[in-house]
Amino acid sequence: MLVLRAYALASFAALSASRAPIEALASTQVDDELRAHFECAARCASMPESDRAILENTWRSVGCEEGGPGAHPICGSSMEQLCVGACGGGQQDMTTWLPGAFGSRSPGIAEKQIGGFAADYEAHHACSARCAQEGVSVDAAGPDAAERALETLNRCGVVQLVGAYELTELDRFQRAFDALKSKATAYKKLLDTKQLHDGRSQVYLPFTTPFTSRKALGVGDLVHGVLAKYFRTSGMGFGIDHASVLVSASHSGNQSLHPDVPYFKGLTVSVHTALRDVTTEMGPTYFCPCTGEALIREDWPSSAAIKMSILKRQDCLASSLAPKLTRRGTITVYDGAMFHKGLENGSEQDRPVLKLEVGADDFPDRRNYIQLASASAKKQTLKFRAALGPPLMGDMAPSSTEL
Ligand SMILES: O=C(O)CCC(=O)C(=O)O
């Protein structure tokens, strides 16, 4: 079986197909820690059924079968991810727990596999260096904007569509949001100060006009076409997960580096519209381009090893990207599996962003991001999901998504 068993997803081959040519790269050493992480992942990727059964028992014992991904932190994980988390954590004696993959009679890993990882690691450096140096902006009004945006999103994991949200439309959104803010009771019911960290808060949008159209949420035809193609690569439709306005308050701190979903690439995508110009001082979002776990079995051990080392070091392993100026109306689209963080907002101004998250097929329900939200926020979000669900975020006609 080629694909890691998680959510019975289709092949992600095209998502990870765009690799920079290895020969053009500067040499990048695989250190002992990375090598150990790769060894964990490579062993986990080829574990026998007997080990898988042990992991599945653990997974069931915490209520994942009945409760879905929200029931326990391990419930959204594939067995390979559980295995690699335990192995990388170093607290479990893997040789006795999963003897098939780690015991004295296990096949182990070959030098050839380490060589393959070294090449993948170099490719990761080259990929992120290109994204950081060339940037990830695409002029929404420029020629071939949709193709360029999709190519950048696939290659870097993030793209910024400059001018994608028409400014007079954004004024209308802002007026409606200000009106919501003035209704103190309703606003408070939709406010979430718990789920986001380090001085960020969000207000879930109510399912009322003008917020009910996908365009008002940042998904005009250009973004819609890009998202449709991005999810279609893996054979999936997409729909809304939740919509809110996120505020990084003036003087809020540096976030820790995180992915929004601790799973694979291609399951959730964030669509952030800048509601005002974002300067370096206001702490833009900082990305580790080309990160996130690949779903196809051949690519997964390398991407998982890189992810584990990023988590441990709390920094990108290769080049990072933090746009110096993001103009109001720019829409930043990024895969939720990619590592990122909001930087410290050292300015005197809040940094508000219209934050839409979309997910593959039934993934938003399975992920259950809103489980900690207020009753009002849940109710409104479920209305959005019913109206703007898969296969094409409320649209039924595939022709409307052609690029
Ligand atoms: O503040 C940002 O730019 C990113 C926010 C974010 O990623 C989060 O709160 O999860």
TrEMBL record:
The lineage of its organism: Eukaryota, Sar, Alveolata, Dinophyceae, Suessiales. Keywords: Signal. Residues 1-24 form the signal peptide. InterPro entries: Fungal_Metabolite_Diox, Phytyl_CoA_dOase-like. PANTHER family: PHYTANOYL-COA DIOXYGENASE FAMILY PROTEIN (AFU_ORTHOLOGUE AFUA_2G03330). Pfam families: PhyH. Transmembrane segments: none annotated. This is Uncharacterized protein. It comes from the Eukaryota.
